[in-house]
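[recover] target loaded
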């Protein structure tokens, strides 16, 4: 892989799609949590730790994607 002209495009897609997926996932999860807590307020305390755990996992996937994108952009591991 001597030609690295498409590397910035690939890194941009990696970071952008990771951010988009994380934001959409957290938005859907938060809306479902609010809907469930409105229907059954007594379950709110039991669901809250699960929501924060899933939010951390979704953010973790995005942070890993950013780290890999920065690594590809700065270190150029395929340059030779």
């Amino acid at each position: 892989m001597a030609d690295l002209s498409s590397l910035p495009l690939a890194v941009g897609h990696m970071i952008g799609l990771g951010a988009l997926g994380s934001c959409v996932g957290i938005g859907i999860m938060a809306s479902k949590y609010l809907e469930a807590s409105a229907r059954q307020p007594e379950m709110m305390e039991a669901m809250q730790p699960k929501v924060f755990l899933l939010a951390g996992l979704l953010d973790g996937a995005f942070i890993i994607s950013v780290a890999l994108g920065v690594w590809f952009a700065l270190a150029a591991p395929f340059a030779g």
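[recover] notes: The mean pLDDT is 86.
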